[in-house]
Amino acid sequence: MESTSSGGGSHHQPRLPPGFRFHPTDEELVVHYLKKKAASAPLPVAIIAEVDLYKYDPWELPSKASFGEQEWYFFSPRERKYPNGERPNRAATSGYWKATGTDKPILTANGTQKIGVKKALVFYGGKPPKGIKSNWIMHEYRLVDKNSSANKPLE
């Protein structure tokens, strides 16, 4: 998640070497963090907080982060809008997150396999469809379904 607004910093910085910057590539986020989290495997470093993003407004989230100043990373459950549907519920406290643009595939370094998807979301204050667009942007990362044709090697 990132913002063009000024916001608070995180209060619980992990112990890391001086000069450390957490600026992973999309592939690194998917392979070393998201896949491992989904498999309940140990993470390289406990730097990504677990937060239900939709229980907060975006300006409240920086204080919930484990690390970051202008970008924050979170693991969050993906709730469904309807019990039997696939559509995600992205309603927040005083607004909602709206998908924008097209999903970006995340490929392995050699570009032969799709390992995830990145979706851009913008926060709108109020209720749809009359929400007011804000400067808050969130990037949602998802793993591709193992049985999906999208996970097969590219030709």
TrEMBL record:
Keywords: DNA-binding, Nucleus, Transcription, Transcription regulation. Residues 1-10 have a biased composition (Gly residues). Residues 1-21 are annotated as: Disordered. PROSITE patterns: NAC (PS51005). Residues 16-155 form the NAC domain. It comes from the Eukaryota. InterPro entries: NAC-dom, NAC_dom_sf. One of its GO terms (biological process) is system development. It holds the Pfam family NAM. GO terms for molecular function: DNA binding. This is NAC transcription factor 56. It comes from Sesamum angolense.
